[in-house]
Amino acid sequence: MRKLKLGIIGAGGIGRHHAEVVSKLEEYQLVAVADAVEERAKSVASLYGVRAYGSFAELLDREELDAVAICTPHPTHSEIAIETMKRGVSVLTEKPMAATVSQCLAMIAEARKRGVKLGVVFQYRFDPRLRRAKSLIASGALGEPYRAYLRYVTYRDMAYFYSAQWRGRWATEGGGVLINQGVHFIDIFIWLMGRMPLEVFAYGDTVGHDIEVEDLVSAVAAYENGCQAMLQLSTLDYPDMFNLEIRGDKGMLLVETSPKPSERGLANLQGAYVYRNEPPVRRAIYASLKPGAPRPAFSIEEIKADGPFTGHEAVYKDFARALIEDREPEVPGEEGLKSVELINAIIMSAVEHRPVSIPINPAEYDKLLDRLSKSGRPPWPQPARKAK
Fold first, then answer.
1. Is residue 322 classed exposed, middle or buried when 0-12, 13-18 and 19+ CB atoms within 10 A define those classes?
2. What's the CA gap between 122 and 281, in Å, rounded?
3. 106, 132 in Cβ contact below 8 A?
4. 103-161, pLDDT tens digit by residue?
5. What is the pTM for the complete model shown?
6. Which domains are assigned to the chain?
7. CA distance 148 to 246
């Protein structure tokens, strides 16, 4: 089998990880690494005996490639992807796909125009437990969702934001906890729900950091079927925790990750469970109109993995099959767009203090982001407080 020739653009921590993963896969031949800091590119390239370049344009000019992996800060993804696809080369881009809906749409349009593949790295979609959960939901095991909840809280100190000039600024990051730390979990939430909301209303704030963008956000999302979802994310919390619930009248999916006591001390444990109601809640509500009627019974089943979670390796193997078989990757640009659209809508709602419909108007959001970039400060309106 002919190996797919791959170039990696971006030689920071995630680029190094991509290079390590690809070097072990029989489907690929890593041929070059590029980074704006050429010494960084040379450092990674030397580990794998490949060529190093000081810019992505130089790499594209000099190499014959089947695909490029983009591992640069996300506000640069769109420019690099489009230039790559113009040369007939397929693109696998790290999360998030881009900073704005308009950038995502431009990337999707270019991929269609050039007849190349565009994939987005959301490796948690390949987690065996989450894939089983997705199948359960699709089978109707939970019933029609009527309530959902996503909480992802993590911790970042100011050293993290000082480590790179692009962090924490509207002009160079395009957002905070939503677009950077939380996007993986927002994507999983959208994927498991199997639908986008019609409208969101959000509050955002910059509470604990000297940055322009949000470090705390809470949003309510409303869906066409009447389902209501709550999303809360922050970079103020330690220890990290992740909770996801999707509830229908037949049952509930619960996915949670948090530190727990174990034989080896504290361990960050993840669990995935499906709760089944008998009878379904909406039927039970009217089963008896006499006071004291029993509540529905329920059972709990832990969702077990039926194989290992291989992370980026699974993403790369799927992308190789997409190129070889001429099919879409499991996470094409159209799927990568969804999390960016929800994030853009939440930011717009929090800044303008109003409900925002989905799909959003990309041009309106671009104007908002331009204003935020020029202001260079946190933009959040404060809720009215009653005088004491």
1. buried
2. 34
3. no
4. 999 999 999 999 999 999 999 999 999 999 999 999 999 999 999 999 999 999 999 99
5. 0.95
6. 4-124+311-332 (3.40.50.720), 127-307+340-375 (3.30.360.10)
7. 4
